[in-house]
Prior knowledge:
Blueprint: H1 6-22, H2 29-48, H3 54-74, H4 78-96
Helix pairs in contact: 2-3, 3-4
Amino acid sequence: MPKSFGMPLLLIALGSVWFLKSTALLPNTATLLALLLAGCGLLLLVLEGVNKSSIVSSPLLMYTGAAIWVYDHYDVRFSHAFSLGMVLAGLLMLLAHNRRIPERQAPRGGRKGPPAEH
Length: 118
């Protein structure tokens, strides 16, 4: 992308967010953050598939989004949400040790193998 596109795209993005916020169409910050985290967790799972890395990180991202939303809307105590998240993280880490879950594959186009010696 040419450098000349940076400033117009930034202005469009900031203007759009400002417009949505001033017209009350944009949800509050906690809801927006919760949706972004949950969406990132789902997207990560879709893009990477199920592997030892995504089986832990994807559900934790989704749980964090849900915990932020519940904390903001239902006044759940932080210690409750955090301790439940710790239990979930531990269970997911144990699940990742299962032999049926594949290892994370190297990214496409990346280096393969050790560097050649001269």
